[in-house]
Amino acid sequence: MKVPKCFGIWGNTEKPAFWELLPDIISWTEEKNLEVHLTTRIRDNMEDSQTFSYQVIESAEDFFKLDFLLTLGGDGTMLSLARAVGDRNVPILGIHLGELGFLAAVNVDQMFEKLDQVVAGDYLVQPRIVLKSTVYNGGKPSTFFALNDMVIDGGKSHRMLVCELQANNHVIANYKADGLIVSTPTGSTAYSLAAGGPIVVPTMKTMVVTPICPHSLTLRPIVIPDDQVLNISFPSDHDDGIALAVDGQICEELGSSSKVEIQAADYTINMIGFPGSNYFRTLRKKMGWGRRGDM
Description:
By secondary structure, the chain is of the alpha/beta class. The chain is built from six helices and 18 strands. The protein folds into two domains: 6-123 and 274-287, 3-Layer(aba) Sandwich (Rossmann fold), CATH 3.40.50.10330; 130-268, Tumour Suppressor Smad4 (Sandwich). The protein has helices spanning 16-32, 40-45, 75-85, 111-119, 191-194, 279-287, and strands spanning 6-11, 35-39, 55-57, 68-73, 92-96, 106-107, 124-136, 142-146, 149-153, 161-167, 170-177, 179-183, 206-212, 222-225, 230-233, 242-246, 250-254, 259-273. Helix 1 links the parallel strand 1 and strand 2.
């Protein structure tokens, strides 16, 4: 793989652990003769006494200058970075600072070992599909992108959602449920899993549709190829509210006449992995997958 010469840091500046780690990371960059770029948020929250040399990521176009991005925080930090990077193809290495973390797979105690591997070119780039949602809600359509999932529910009304789902203009089902989750394989271990959806290996090219508390035992999660275009419409009156949540971080209010189109985006998010890493071992370690009782 490409041996990097410069990289950017994107972090959750509200976590004390971020500021505790930053000086050590800067010392490491100086030792490796790497150029470091910081976001404006990091720069604006640094103490005035910081004297090390760095460049500033002023806009998303500055990502093109970078060989990779280091994100420090939780999964939410990774999701926000993925949307910011968009189609610019910059590989991302996630360092987890919280309690669980699944997207940011590297722990703090492994951080410098993994960074040394990246600098040596001993790493892998794993593409992850992204969802593109086009919302027709009156006026100009709105477009959103998600690395994890798109969730449609009753919004503030908390009423049951009634909707029709089509794939390439073929009806899949009419749903009566608390909501509907459309997730990527990356997002299959998030809200979709909690709602009863399957675990999907994150490098696969599929979408998962999982109803939330469906009012029929016959409505089960379904896995759909990523070459399909999903269309969601609302045949019943939902004047008291429908909401679309994007990666749990962006919310769009919808009307009853709205239509939502979801498909795979024409780009992927590139995550940094390492030779010998094992997704199923990560499942067992972080989620207790396959564990029986108190074993």
